[in-house]
Design goal:
It is found in: Endomembrane system. InterPro entries: Adaptor_comp_med_subunit, Longin-like_dom_sf. Keywords: Membrane, Protein transport, Transport. One of its GO terms (cellular component) is endomembrane system. By secondary structure, this protein is α+β, with helices and mostly antiparallel strands. It has one domain (6-92): Beta-Lactamase, CATH 3.30.450.60. It contains five helices and four strands, in the order ββαααββαα. It has helices at 27-45, 50-55, 57-67, 78-82, 96-115, and strands at residues 6-12, 15-21, 68-69, 72-73. A two-stranded antiparallel ribbon has the order 1-2. It has a two-stranded antiparallel ribbon with strand order 3-4. The longest helix is centred in the last third of the chain and has 20 residues, at 96-115. The protein is globular, with a radius of gyration of 21 Å. It starts with 5 loop residues before the first strand and ends with a helix. The relative contact order is 0.11.
């Protein structure tokens, strides 16, 4: 509690998710809301990272506006929120996907070549 504000935060996917309140509320209640919001963001965008948040800022703002009404959570299910949002998600490719696929492919080739019978 700093100057009458309560701060709640968690770090997931390399990003801090923060909530504040002037009132005394259960920390587990606020953390539950934060985690549900993260789930909705993942349902919309596929992955949560800094670039996804930048490219989908308008959509995320719409989601927060629909979920939190005058400081009270209203809709927390993705299916219910979809009918009220106008923006579409901008899908951001994960930078490591290609590198991971190449590593798996090279390891697979290494193991299959080593175990393959010579003709």
């Amino acid at each position: 509690n700093i100057e009458g504000l309560n701060y709640f935060f968690t770090k997931k996917f390399g990003i801090y998710f923060v909530a504040t309140t002037k009132y005394n509320v259960s920390p587990s209640y606020v953390m539950d809301i934060i985690y549900r919001m993260m789930k909705v963001f993942r349902d919309y965008c596929g992955v949560i990272n800094e670039e996804t948040i930048r490219k989908n800022f308008v959509l995320i703002y719409e989601i927060i506006d629909e979920v939190i009404d005058y400081g009270h959570p209203q809709l927390m299910a993705t299916e219910n929120i979809r009918q009220y949002t106008v923006s579409d998600a901008v899908v951001v490719p994960v930078a490591g996907d290609k590198q991971i696929k190449e590593k798996v492919k090279s390891k697979w080739n290494f193991f299959t070549k080593a175990s393959a019978p010579s003709t």
